[in-house]
Amino acid sequence: MAAGRGLDEASSHANTGGASTALLLGIDLSTQSVTVVFLDAGTNRIVHIDTLNFDRELPQFGTSAGLHVGKNGKVTSPVQMWLVGLDRILRRQERTLMGRVKAVSGSAQQHGSIFWTADGLAALRCMAPADSFSSNLYGGFALEDCPTWADSSTQMECDAIESATGGPGAMAALTGSRAYCRFTGPQIARVARTEPLVWKHTARVSLVSSFLTSLLVGHPAPVDASDASGMNLMNVRTSEWCEELLEATAPGLAARLGTIVNPWESLGPISPYCAARFGFVTDCLVIPASGDNSCSVVGTGLACDQTASTLMVSLGTSDTLVGLTRSPRPGPEGHVMVSPRGPDEWFAMLCYKNGALAREAVRDRVAGGCWKKFDDLVASAPPGNDGNLAMTLVMEEIVPVLPIRGSFRVDAQDEPVAALSEAHEARAVVEARFLSMRVHAGNLGLPTAPSRIIATGGGSMSTSLTQVLADVFNAPVLVADSSEAAAVGAALRAGHGLKCKKQARWVELLASPLKDFKVMATPNAQAAAAYPATLLKRFAAFERGLVAKAQKHPQAQQSRE
Ligand code: XUL
């Protein structure tokens, strides 16, 4: 077997389903690595996974976590690293696997952008199979260092685009999100303003997802509607470009974007180049790649059912909450994005900046840096924290927009206090996150009484965090491996597109193989009763008070990333 691992070794026989079974391939081009997942097209079981880590396997690009961190919030990734990484991982897969792939799709970091030259687009159409992507496309990009989702250098562009379109509320109503630094529109605006020659030589801008599918089909691929929701350029209700926004963003942008497609629409067969170089069969179908959050929605098997709903919560460097809805309510906090699963469905997402780093700051202060002691402290204060509320901001927050840093606390009478007991401090930083998620999930049109929560990320391994999450939402918390969810989601989407193509209409998505999640925490009925509507109202008022304080005394330049 090629480098990598066959999952579920004990039953790998059953998994592979015999050497002739058709396979689905998911390719996850994420920030730190590229992963390939092969699924059995009949059973959806995982047959093989392989990952290439950029920092470790491609050290010549000098990245840290796949990124180059520059000045003033600029954070990029080299386009050549993605090309070399993709070529290497596809070349090292066994031809017996590649030759069985009936459909392929991808997952990619959201918001990032690739600036192609006209020569690059021409080279893409006639790549020589003896040479790598990188050699074939050498010199084909107007920018070698591509803006990524981790960039925060475009606040000036965000403000300008928002004011040209009627302010943050109007922007959110139109595109699903107010203008955010990491979103692709503001990123393009900065390139066009600060590097006019680069912009002049740019013939096409791809998202990382459509860049990946362009390489697979051998011509500039359209943008997937779900991933395009992270651009601040698309009408999130109609999935069409907003003319006024394209004009407000950069001159000549409309001609450089291509079209938008539904996530389940086939883009046609794999290119002759990829068939010859990597061993795909010539009729292998390519389905639009999408963003990592969209693909994780599919990989974790989220379904849109308001009565038996599931929310997905990721607890990592940043904390996110994602849920599906048929009645989205875009607003100044969070994002509404087109669902990758089917028509007339969206997913809403909250993305907090103060995740693990804020919890670590409190852990260091009250528990001497020890997670066990921190967990014990959280458990020693009662649910509801005796009415004490606190928020620790190690970075300026974006849910809600809070351009301040520090720790802020009120007691049970809503009086500001300078400090809480160690146990109250520890519990407050955890409760604050989940109370905030409950308040804002409801504002975005998501269910606030889910039937279960699927947790991912490092924090999903913490018993204290997951127990508070279960109690605040009064729902069981299950854990999933997020590194697999996006790649598996991409493979399932490949199968979905194949099925839709065969039946010449949209059909239901396939079931995810990642459904045997481990139950991490179940809600304690008494504890859940400690989070009544009155506490949520108090928390919302506490947040509003901080927003007012931040507006009066901003401590730093306003930034929403
Ligand atoms: C979502 C976001 C991140 C990236 C990471 O809006 O910025 O989750 O998609 O790859």
Automatic annotation (TrEMBL):
It comes from the Eukaryota. It holds the Pfam family FGGY_N. It catalyses: D-xylulose + ATP = D-xylulose 5-phosphate + ADP + H(+). GO terms for biological process: D-xylose metabolic process; xylulose metabolic process. Keywords: ATP-binding, Carbohydrate metabolism, Kinase, Nucleotide-binding, Transferase, Xylose metabolism. Its EC number is 2.7.1.17. GO terms for molecular function: ATP binding; D-xylulokinase activity. Residues 143-299 form the Carbohydrate kinase FGGY N-terminal domain. InterPro entries: ATPase_NBD, Carb_kinase_FGGY, D-XK_euk, FGGY_C, FGGY_N. CDD domains: ASKHA_NBD_FGGY_SpXK-like. One of its GO terms (cellular component) is cytosol. Residues 311-496 form the Carbohydrate kinase FGGY C-terminal domain. Belongs to the FGGY kinase family. PANTHER family: SUGAR KINASE, XYLULOSE KINASE. This is Xylulose kinase. The lineage of its organism: Eukaryota, Sar, Stramenopiles, Ochrophyta, Eustigmatophyceae.
